[in-house]
């Protein structure tokens, strides 16, 4: 089998659409279809069920997918090592990260990326949600980890990583911690701590205002660590995305009727003309098990 066949199969496994997989692979649809058929012949089994316009992986296709991902990752590492050894220098990427995204998931992935790309150097810069796209298009950063990304710009490649709900955070021993959910009336009686950088802030205020509830904050700050630490020490409650806790001692519960969520994604300039290191990094983002 050839490496191109493996790449074509992985693109098809990601999209389950022959047309889109061909576009990702930079080949015509008949070329991709023939490559998949040859791969099935070589492996002696069907990899993809084709039912009209719908496609899905067979058991064999699912089983070999992870192995092919490992092969593709190894190929990228070999290319990166070879390229940078020949050039005699490291590849540097400057990435923005929205300051309300908890670091644990990102740093775990970054550690993985640095292992897969030994000659990569990363510079991480804190950004606000509103400035990421502008800094990306102006060339100030190579990519960014952002929330609720703006879509529709053909110059931007977007990889959606995971979604997270907005929940109510409180100390583990707080009076509401034993409940499975919190009513709006109970919320209105709590001392409220205001995360000024929260993307949900206006939507939460509007939701409460429509129900004649006005939360008067006892503490306001742009510092995520300060607000969360105060909540963990029992000073009050705050609204917090479910995977964004950065201090210990927090309990998170849903609020009745308040159903908000956000998408965390990676964005970069699209196209084959981007730096090879950025293309490799973006591929790692696509294949990482964020959930």
TrEMBL record:
This is LysR family transcriptional regulator. The keyword Cell wall biogenesis/degradation does not apply. Belongs to the LysR transcriptional regulatory family. Residues 1-58 form the HTH lysR-type domain. It holds the Pfam family LysR_substrate. Keywords: DNA-binding, Membrane, Transcription, Transcription regulation, Transmembrane, Transmembrane helix. The keyword Transcription applies. The chain crosses the membrane at residues 93-114. The lineage of its organism: Bacteria, Pseudomonadati, Pseudomonadota, Alphaproteobacteria, Hyphomicrobiales. InterPro entries: LysR_HTH_N, LysR_subst-bd, WH-like_DNA-bd_sf, WH_DNA-bd_sf.
